[in-house]
Design brief:
Blueprint: H1 2-18, H2 33-40, H3 42-45, H4 66-75, E1 76-77, E2 80-81, H5 89-99
Antiparallel strand pairs: 1-2
Helix pairs in contact: 2-5, 4-5
Heme C binds near residues 79 and 81.
């Protein structure tokens, strides 16, 4: 009987810790900015950031700093809706970082 309890505890441990680690494409924070971009941003900005739908800006041409980008992503600007309610600070951080990689 005691053995079953130990096995059950071991399983809980694996399930609880296994979820977030692992996976290849993640950034150092463990959050995949590219994936967040594809889910939330391509609608207006396009896969490469250049689409410019709904008057959105070409992200590859943006001169904004990391902090300015994070503020716009969080609070929105004009037709761009803010993602503050949808994404965590870490996710906003990761996706802002990703916008610098667009070419
Ligand atoms: C509903 C369409 C829409 C979506 C979805 C959207 N954006 Fe935007 N985005 C815009 C528009 C429009 C602007 C231009 C705002 C302005 O300056 O008038 C903009 C501007 C920006 C800017 C500032 C660029 C600059 O140089 O001024 C950044 C950075 C940005 N978006 C990132 C993102 C990210 C990251 C996401 C996904 C989390 C996202 N956007 C989703 C429409 C959108």
């Amino acid at each position: 009987m005691k053995q079953y309890i130990i096995i059950a505890l071991a399983l809980v441990f694996v399930v609880a810790c296994g979820g977030k680690s692992g996976g290849g494409e993640t950034s150092d924070s463990g959050i995949d900015g590219k994936k967040i971009f594809k889910t939330n941003c391509v609608l207006c900005h396009g896969e490469d950031g250049k689409l410019g739908l709904n008057n959105s800006k070409d992200l590859t041409a943006s001169k904004l700093s990391m902090d300015e980008r994070k503020t716009i992503i969080k609070n929105g600007k004009n037709t761009m809706t803010g993602f503050g309610p949808l994404l965590s600070d870490e996710e906003i951080n990761a996706v802002a970082k990703y916008t610098f990689q667009l070419k």
